[in-house]
Amino acid sequence: MPTAPHPQNTDELHQALQENDRRPYGRTRTVTAEELVDAAEQFAEPVPLIHALLELQEAYTYGSEPRKSPVVFARLLTLFDEQPDVFDERLRHMLFWRFKWVSNALRALPEIPLASLRQWLTEMRDRYEKAGLGLQPYYGQAYQLAAHVGEDTTFAYELWAGRTRTRLSDCEACEICERALHHLTAGDDKRALRTWEPVLAGKESCQEEPARSVSHALLPLLRTGSTDRARELHLAGYRSCRRNPSMSPEVGRHLEFCALTGNEARGLELLAENRSLFDEVDSPLDLLSFLTGVEVLLQRVELLGHGELPAAGYAGRTWTVADLRAEVRGRADDLAARFDARNATTAHTDRRRARLDRAPLLDALELTLRGRGLDDVAPAAPAAAPAARTAAAVPDSPAELILRARALDEEGHPDSQACWARLRTLAAARDYTHPDDPAVGPLVQLRADLLAEEASRAGEKDEFADAAALHEEAAALYDDAGLPGHAALARAFALLRAAETPAQGADGAEAKAAALTAAHASMVRLHEETPGLAPFQEARLLRLRASALGVRLQTSRSEAHVAPVLAEADLLHAFATRHDLVGQISGSLLLRASTYAISGDLPAAVTEIDALLDQQKAHGPAWHLPRTLGLRGRLQLGLQDAQAAHANLTEGLRLAAEWPADAVDAARLHGDLAEACMHLGSPDEALRHLTRSAELELRRGSRTDAFCTYSNAAQLSLDLGRVEDCIALLDSLLAEPDVAAGELDDRIVAQLRLTRARALHAGEDLKAATAEFVALAAESAGWDDDPASHAMIAAQTAVLLGESGEFGRAREAVDQALVAHAQAPSYEQLSNCLRELARLQVQQQGSDGLADALALLADAGRIADEARVAEHEAHGRSLDTALAYEHGRVNAHAGEYEAALAALEKALALLGEPGRDDDRAGEWAECVRLAGAVEGIYLERPAPALTRLDAAISRLTALGHTEETEALISLVARLRDEE
Questions:
Q1: Rounded mean pLDDT of the chain?
Q2: pTM as predicted
Q3: At a CB cut-off of 8 Å and minimum separation 6, what does 861 contact?
Q4: Within 13 Å of residue 910, how many CA atoms lie on the same side as its CB?
């Protein structure tokens, strides 16, 4: 089926070829190019057909279909031989350039005999000589064939590298790469890297470079100790080649780099992202290189004992690492053998073996902000016991295990989690036999225990509805077991979790507070009506009563709700003290401190927390210390003592490492430490804590919290100028299965994509950034509940489209933003967008774009009027001042200098003269400078311009703003030189 309308004339064909040229390489572009060749053959003129064939050959070459490229070139060569006069200088140049493309294509096909390759090179040399062209490109191809075959390349290299370049030589970047690879093959890493430097530094580039050179340079950089640069180049280089069939060898080398630097988990992630390459790469030579890189990774993962991990491989079935490695090894071995048979050497088998035998170069190199190991991508397993504290051994006997779990659970000890985890596994087995022991109780009691423990874990994840249902189910089983105290406790938990379930609607907080009041009353009745409670049960009921009121206070922030919490906490403290329940004593004091903190009485909260720390250090429980230190750190942040907060949070994190991961909220500690670090001016340390916090949240199943924290980390990395780190982190997150399947909240995903688009823009990838913004603008148009976000996204989209020169589409995006702005005003953002777009239009189009630019500024004027009526106060200069200044710039770009000067004088009047401590001095000076330039240079009135500038310099100097005078002094000197 045709992918586009059939061109009816040569003009339409030319337009279709241009449109196809803007598409990325791949099947769509290739199929369209094939259709356009068919369309070109209907016209009598040969030139349209030549253009169509050239486009088709390019699509085949960069779409990794080497078998088809020579066939197309043969048609072009026939046309040249038959009608050389129709080939103008440009077409002739392209024809002779592509002899090299055919050489590369034939070399990549093992079924082409070596004699045919040499015969083609002879054809190339003869044609170049006949056309009077220099032979350096021919000798370059001869050298590459020698290197491919595995012959001694010394003579071939000198014949090529020693010759003067011609117009048909490969670009500087590609030739630099070939020379560097020659030195690399000779074992000279340092010389290779010196040769590569212009490409690695971005001074030389082309369509394939620097991505190709970067992929080859990664391991030499590691071997020479340049690990930081290798990391930076991996992040930037991988992004340039991912999912690109024509760059599959480069992808393979990035996978190999991950395998040899302790980043096997990232390697598997990148492999999944490039899964399509298994089926899309049609070049046997490229495929061999890609598969070898894949095998290096899979081999390493299997050697580390993770052969059963899932891996992304050939379509049509699921793969484990071990299975895919075996499949890849067989295919790659076959390809290497075919090339060696064609070339009558063992070069490709030897090179492949060298890559597979290479030992890891580093145990661990932190490549991305999301550092993960293979254990993190493996199925969840019980956490290993921490090194700093030896947990009690889990009993083997089911009876002992049940009694131990219950005893630890009554105490609130974190080691109970390991016992319950073991019991869950045992009880789920078909052959489980419950102990016949009165001390253990019936099987139904164990079932209830396990449900209650599962409910507690659900509540910790804020899955309140599920937790409430599980607690109710447990209560019913406890009733069946004849355990009214346990049943009452489970029902009290269910009451709290049900009341915590978020209420919908505008009065959600009020409804939740009412639900918590009712839950507390029900708990009190339950407490009074349940006889025979054990002390630990009664203490827990008191704790739940206090917790219900504490959550109510947290929800309502009502001063009237403070005293009831403190009263319940005091009841709990008195009861726990009488019965020597250390954990509940600590809990009651922590509740008092939290209550004071929520009510805003931070000094009282600090007094309480200090007493609690003394209590815990003297009497325990030790596992409460990290949480208490965490609260103390947060209080100190509230009191603006970031240094003390950092010390307490760091100590809390150190102690947290001694306990199972689920026992203490280490993710919260890392998050609070990030905030402390930001206050202390240590953003890089803050970034490390944010990413660690997010990963811990992810491991415990709090995916929404994790992605929100990761979003903050991404934004911070972008603010720090770590653009590639930001993009790599977001690429990793957006590739998560639940994100790809649309299971995560769409607004969170949109925020991640928005940050990524901004990072792409900051990284000067305007095309990719614009495409992402356009997609986000289309999606956010449907956010009826959030027009402000749509206005912001549409406005930024418009600016990027303007930077790309697509002003028609930019105007459409602006109109969307204006519609959304009418629903949710965003005065400054829209004004900034309109002014910037107007400037871009005249900057790129000159006077031709003035009318459209002035229309944009008229819209900005209406927004300024609206803001004035709404009494909106702008941050910094007023919208009217900014608009007048932009009128000056826009008119100046368009050559309307009188209008420009009038607008700038209006801006100066609105700004007013600066004062000594005025932060507007720089803005005022720039406005004076531009007015002086327009008046003195473009309107050729230097005398009034100099008067203006001299007065401004004197004014700024007298006020002490000497730095702001530098540009003015420079302009004065220029004007006086021209007088």
A1: 93
A2: 0.83
A3: 883
A4: 18
